[in-house]
Amino acid sequence: MSDSVQGDDSRLDERTGDQTREVSLELDGLTKVFQDDEGDVVAVDDVSMDIYDGEFVVLVGPSGCGKTTTLRMIAGLEDPTDGRIVLGGRDVAGLEPRERDVAMVFQNYALYPHKTVAENLEFPLQIRHYPSDERKSQVESVSELLGISDLLDRRPGDLSGGQQQRVALGRAIIRDPEVFLFDEPLSNLDAKLRIEMRTELNKLHDRVGKTSVYVTHDQEEAMTLSDRVAVMNDGELQQIAPPQTVYDRPANLFVASFIGEPPMNFFDVELSPVQSDAGLRIVSDVFDLLLPEAMARKLDSWDGSTDNLVFGVRPEDVTDTTVADETFPPETTFDAYVAVVEPIGADKDLTLAPDADAPEEREFTVRVDADTEAREGDVITLAVDMAKTHVFDDETGTNLTL
Amino acid sequence: MSEAYRRVPETRYGRLKRLISEFANDHIRLVLLGPALVSLVVIFIYPVAFLVWSSMQRTLAFGATAEFAPTANYEAMLSDPTFWNAAEKTLTYSFGSFVVTMLSGLIIALALNNVVRKRLRDTYTTLILLSWAVPLSIVGVTWRWMFNGQLGVVNKLLRDLGLLSGNFSWLANPETAMAVVIMADAWSRIPFATIIILAGLQSIPQETYDAAKVDGATTFQTFRHVTLPYLRPSFFVAGLITWMFAFRAFAIPFSTTGGGPAGATEVLAIYIHRFGIELFDYGFASAVSMFLVGVTLIVAGIYVNVILEQLSEIEA
Predict the structure, then answer these.
(1) DSSP state letter for B39
(2) Are A76 and B211 an interchain contact pair (Cβ–Cβ within 8 Å)?
């Protein structure tokens, strides 16, 4: 686990080509324990990460994974039980939110309903006693940036959700803070508006260029917005890496299953050595496939038990051989029974099973080209892009083929 | 009515039933509102009409008979200096109680709202509500004894603390007597104001507080820019009701001071009682009651139509 986290810092540098970026926000062993009637609940468990200046990091995970608590601790709304938060080179532990240099955008916008849009925008400046002409010019430039100049005299109650969220963004931007915090800011918007606002946020980040930490449970949002994705589960940081890395090289079973839609398929498998050379075959009751040499070597060098191995294949890394132009070596193909065909436009999702009578929990999904001729009830031959598969240790969840 | 209602067999009894059900169906509003309207007429409209009528009767022979004289009582009222004294005392009393009640209610509600453990908060709330259940005349008598010159616990405490040497007759001094009845009145109204304001406090979304904190507001700034604006509706509702009841208060001033000393705490309700019940001048007492009702209605009307209207525009 820790290896993958370490390794990805260099990956960031490699991606941005910038070795001299400064750390803007550092979390070090951050832990939060809530006291409950039934005892202690660990919401955030020893989370450490470095977030670089101007970087956009998205914390993603299922509900209750501790992502929001982490964000609230950065904001100063929640006191960490343990660990350090270093913001702009300053340890901010124990400081009030107003003594930290952070701005936050909330899921429910949290605008002040009794103030007009202009008053909402200038509130952070007003309470810091900025002179009124400076406040006015700031409100003007921020409202122009966000396209809400004609709404300045309205109250939040008269605005649509998208407009309210824009005002909330403006209220954060106007202060020019060290770091922006976003707590699921788009989840109250309808689907179309959400995608529009996502694009707009992306542009805005390019223009403003501030360090941002963004919490969401929506992996699509996480992938599209982020420079790096931090996947969390059960209060623990699972992996932090650029979105493509998280998708291509998931650190463990959880990340592999959480990122990707439809989710990765998992099969219980056994390893079987190949007599003729040093290769390894991966065997289940559905298939018998040859692992690429690089993966086989990594599995060989692992000294744990190989009794509980899980083989992961993404639905999109499987091809229907009957309509493909190329021929596939037999050691990368297997047969399966087609239970359901779902056309989704450019592709078709097939729900497959080992045979016609297999129970539902043994079904798996593949995404194949739309011109496939597979019908429900057919048995088809599929080829697996073996280089993109993964083998995990079921006990620890670790990806053994990274 | 339509065929659907003709299912009852055409016996004589069935015919009657059908007629009733058709009538009810055609006049459904009347049927549903009827009972409420009847009780409203009996317990509200009729007494008020009677009050209007009796305020126009000049009482003769100690209430035994009366003659119709529409304006006589009102003229007598307006030219009576003791009426104006009572009106002034009523304003002092009601606004004094209003201010003390609302401030204390706000402070107690804020304190209660900060009690983290729900069980504890509910216990405190119940205790505060208990004082609301004490009958007003009992409150008055209790306060009278507490502030009694010779035997009162207040003087005893002040003497023990060395703040007072001899005895001080709180209720014999016009200014302190008014202060005591105002305090007693406020004491009985604080629980209501507290509950309304507490409900208002609990309706404020936590995220708005969080936003204000991250925006950089201090505790006081948060109170001013978030808490108070959100509280305005509940504050106005609690305020109107508190003032209205204090304006018409009788039980507390009557049982604490009886209007004394020398009319220093004689509010309009006691004034009405003196003329109507003690002196049998029903006509005059009715005229003063009309004044009391009129002022209350005007203030409440303005309040509801102007202030609450403005508020709901902002909230919407």
Answers:
(1) H
(2) no
Integer CA distances (angstroms), A43 to A67, A79, A84, B9, in order: 9, 12, 16, 71
Total CB pairs under 8 A between chain A and B:
74
Domain positions in chain B are 3-55, 82-315
Amino acid identity of B56? Answer: M
Handedness of CA A140, A142, A144, A149 (dihedral sign): negative
Q: Which of B272, B300, B297 is nearest to B286 (CA)?
A: B272
- CA A131 – CA A76 distance, rounded (Å): 27
**Burial status of residue B92 (CB atoms within 10 A of its CB: 0-12, 13-18, 19 or more):** middle
8 Å CB contact of B314 and A102: no
Asked whether the beta carbons of residue A102 and residue B214 sit closer than 8 angstroms, the reply is yes
User: Which pLDDT score is estimated for A9?
Assistant: 43
Contact B211 A104 (CB under 8 A): yes
- Decide if B214 and A104 are in contact by the 8 Å CB cutoff: yes
DSSP A218-270: -HHHHHHH-SEEEEEETTEEEEEE-HHHHHHS-SBHHHHHHSSSSPPEEEEEE
Nearest-CA distance from B234 to chain A in Å?
A: 15
Q: Going along A274-346, which residue ranges are E strands?
A: 280-283, 288-290, 309-313, 318-320, 333-343
How far apart, in whole angstroms, are the C-alpha atoms of residue A351 and residue A363? 7
Residue B79 structure tokens: 């030219």
Structure ipTM = 0.81
The fold of B82-315 is MetI-like fold (1.10.3720)
Among B215, B228, B314, most A C-beta atoms within 10 A, so best to mutate, is B215
DSSP 8-class letter at B115: -
> Hey, are the CB atoms on A110 and B205 less than 8 Å from each other?
yes
Provide the CATH number for the domain formed by A265-393 in this structure: 2.40.50.140
pLDDT band at A15 (very low <50, low <70, confident <90, very high): very low
For residues B1 and B3, give the distance between their C-alpha atoms in angstroms, rounded to a whole number: 7
CA distance B102 to B185: 12
Count CB atoms within 10 A of the CB of residue A63: 7
Give the pLDDT confidence of B18-57 residue by residue, as tens digits: 888 888 888 888 888 989 999 999 998 999 899 998 888 8
The DSSP secondary-structure symbol of A398 reads B
Facing residue for B215 by CB, picked from A107, A114, A171: A171
Considering the domain delimited by A2-101+177-258, tell me its CATH architecture: 3-Layer(aba) Sandwich (3.40)
By CB neighbour count within 10 A (0-12 exposed, 13-18 middle, 19+ buried), where does B287 fall?
A: buried
Put simply, the answer to whether A157 touches B316 (Cβ < 8 Å) is: yes
Q: Is the pLDDT score of B254 beyond 90?
A: yes
Which token pair is A28? 């070090």
User: Which residue out of A69, A87, A104 would a mutagenesis test of the B interface target, given it has the greatest number of B Cβ atoms within 10 Å?
Assistant: A104
Q: Which tokens is A205 given? A: 């980040």
Q: How far is A34 from chain B (nearest CA, A)?
A: 14
- Say if residue B155's pLDDT is above 90: no
